[in-house]
Specification:
This protein is mainly beta. It is built from two helices and twelve strands, in the order βββαβββββββββα.
């Protein structure tokens, strides 16, 4: 994903209402980016000046400014670098958001996540112009799987095993002829 305006925001299309979930962000640049979670109501308020973490029910971490964001900024985390993998975790059973840098916990960032009826959260990111990231929702193995948290998208291991078996059988048949 690449930021193409002053502060571009995008949101995944999977709503989460309970459980413990994660996704990873590979940093391909190291500038201003807010990585986290949002509700649909918050997402509707984002502009090219305000993004994830700038509204009541959205939560973000920015390692360039070393801040966490929820209607304002508070010191949190560590400076990030190109190549870092940021784990973005949400625990909707207890209402917490936490972040990891290259598999090392930065601690609980927020413990005020509203849950229950009427609250659904989506992975979301806001990027300054020309910032670049790659997101992994779990469609491939995580670089740093955080114990107790599930991927948003399940890695298709069984399907890949079947394809591998099929291709192996096909290869054996071709060798016979």
């Amino acid at each position: 994903i690449e930021g193409k305006s002053n502060f571009s925001t995008c949101c995944a299309n999977t709503a989460l209402t309970k459980g413990k979930w994660m996704y990873e962000v590979l940093l391909l640049s190291r500038g201003i980016m807010q990585l986290g979670w949002t509700t649909p109501r918050s997402f509707a308020k984002f502009t090219n000046q305000e993004g994830v973490g700038d509204t009541e029910n959205s939560f973000a971490f920015d390692g360039k400014r070393i801040k966490k964001w929820n209607k304002g900024a508070i010191d949190y985390g560590e400076d990030w670098n190109v190549g870092d993998v940021i784990g973005c975790c949400i625990d909707l059973d207890v209402g917490e958001v936490s972040y990891y840098r290259n598999g090392v916990s930065l601690g609980v960032a927020f413990d005020n996540v509203k849950t229950g009826t009427g609250y659904a959260y989506f992975p979301a990111v806001s990027l300054s112009f020309d910032e670049h990231i790659r997101i992994n929702f779990g469609d491939r193995p995580f670089n740093y799987k955080i114990e107790g948290f599930e991927p948003i998208q399940v890695y298709p291991a069984e399907e890949l095993y079947c394809v591998d078996q099929y291709l192996g059988s096909l290869n054996n048949l071709l060798k016979i002829h």
